[in-house]
# Entry
Amino acid sequence: MSLFPTVNCEIKRTIDGYTDQDTGQWVEGGLNLIAAVEADIQPKSGRERATELQTEYESDYKAFIVDKNITFEAGYSEIQKGDIFIDSEGTDYTIVFPGDWKNHYELELKEQ
# Structure
C-alpha cells in the first residue's frame, strides 16, 4: 500500500506510420495509448536530482505503479523508455527510465 494516493494516468507511445500487410493501406502513425495505470507520483527532492546530474537520465518526478494497477492495451506488455506518461491533470512527462521490478514499476519522469 502506498503512502501517497494514486491517480488515474495514461501511458502513450509514438508509433511510426506503416503499410498494413493485409490490406496494403497506409496506416498513419501517431501517439497510441498503450496502458491505463493508477500511479503514485512524487516530485524528486533537490538532493535526488543533484545526484543524477550528468547521468544518462535526469528526472523531475518518480511514479510508482503496482503491476495489478496496469491495464495494457492489446499488443502491449511493457512500459519503455521514451513513452509518454500523462497524469490525471493532463501534464505530459517523458519516461526517461522505466524501472521494472517484476511486481511494480518505478518510472523516472521528465516534465515536457
Notes: The mean pLDDT is 88. The chain is about 5% helix and 50% strand. The first strand starts at residue 7 and ends at 15. The chain has one domain: 7-111.
